[in-house]
Amino acid sequence: MKATLLYECKDSIGEAATWLNDLGLFLWVDINGGLLHTYSPDGDAYAAVRLPARVSTIVPMTDGRLLLSLQGRLIAYDLRTGEQEVLRELFPTDGMMRPNDGKASPEGRLWLGMMHLSDHSETGALYRVDPDLSIHKMLDKQCIPNGIIWSEDGSRMYYVDSGRHVVESYRYDMRSGELSYEKPALEIPEDMGVPDGMTIDADGNLWIAHWGGFGVCVWNPLSGELLDKVEVPVPNVASCTFGRDGLLYITTAMDGLSMREREAYPLSGSLFVASTGMSPGKNHYPFRRI
């Protein structure tokens, strides 16, 4: 399969590919640019909003707003009015830590990775934010916490640590929100790029963006088998998700490329799409604030 250009932009790090089925909207962010992008396939309409800080995560909320992770805080954002509400401050830091990828679990807790801006040697962590906005460190000594997804029945969580080139499998207890380590589901060879964001199809296969790998690879997490690849004409592929009719939306990045590489791959940082013929798995659960 091959992806084609949908919208040309120059995102430093295009991330957090999110499909809102009720609204028929695709959303993504430029982390370093502090941009929230929206695209409506029905009207072929695009818009962007600049936020006051780096932004890395988009999670729908049960009240219709979006939960966004900004550097230093979590906010609720109203797409209709632009109104922002600070939900809670994140950890006091020296400005060198920021949120990375995040998702809500099937029962409505937020899972959010935190990473260091420059030191990726086990300085990160994976946190759980409960509906009452209390926060709990679930995994420490992480390098670059990244993609998170759950199996169809919610009993298993798959989680990417990009710095270790691994996708791990955890048993997940939806009642307590506790994890128990199961096994490394996938160990990605270095010559295939770095695993980044991911989504899941109706068959339980993982569609993983490969940073430096020119594509999205389709993996069976139970057998470890590589099933397919969506080729993308730029190196740094950062996140992906399914929309309607088997369309896979794919975000990319300019970050990490030399000037020569940017000249060679001028569409880096743009939005791409691929027709896959696949049905999506369950994804983009809402955060259930109380």
Description:
The protein is about 0% helix and about 50% strand. The chain has about 290 residues and is an all-beta fold. The protein has a single domain (about 5-275), classed as TolB, C-terminal domain (Neuraminidase, 6 Propeller), CATH 2.120.10.30. The strands form six sheets. The chain has a four-stranded antiparallel sheet with strand order 1-24-23-22, with no helix packed on it.
SSE layout and pairing:
Blueprint: E1 4-7, E2 14-20, E3 25-30, E4 35-40, E5 45-50, E6 55-60, E7 66-70, E8 73-77, E9 84-89, E10 97-104, E11 110-116, E12 124-129, E13 135-142, E14 145-150, E15 156-161, E16 166-173, E17 178-187, E18 194-200, E19 206-211, E20 215-219, E21 226-231, E22 237-242, E23 247-252, H1 259-264, E24 271-275
Antiparallel strand pairs: 1-24, 2-3, 3-4, 4-5, 6-7, 7-8, 8-9, 10-11, 11-12, 12-13, 14-15, 15-16, 16-17, 18-19, 19-20, 20-21, 22-23, 23-24
Straight-line distance between termini: 43 Å
Q: Which structural category do the helix and sheet elements fall into?
A: mainly beta
Categorize the overall geometry: globular
Order of helices and strands: EEEEEEEEEEEEEEEEEEEEEEEHE
Low-confidence stretches: none
The total of helices stands at 1
CATH class assignment: Mainly Beta
Return Rg in Å.
17 Å
Quaternary form: single chain
DSSP helix fraction: under 10%
Q: Which architecture does the CATH hierarchy give at level 2? A: 6 Propeller
Sheet with the most strands?
Answer: 4 strands, antiparallel
The total beta strand count reads 24
Taken together, the total number of domains comes to 1
Overall pLDDT:
96
Roughly what fraction of the amino acids lie in strands? Answer: over 45%
- In the sheet with the most strands, the strands line up as 1-24-23-22
Name given to the CATH homologous superfamily: TolB, C-terminal domain
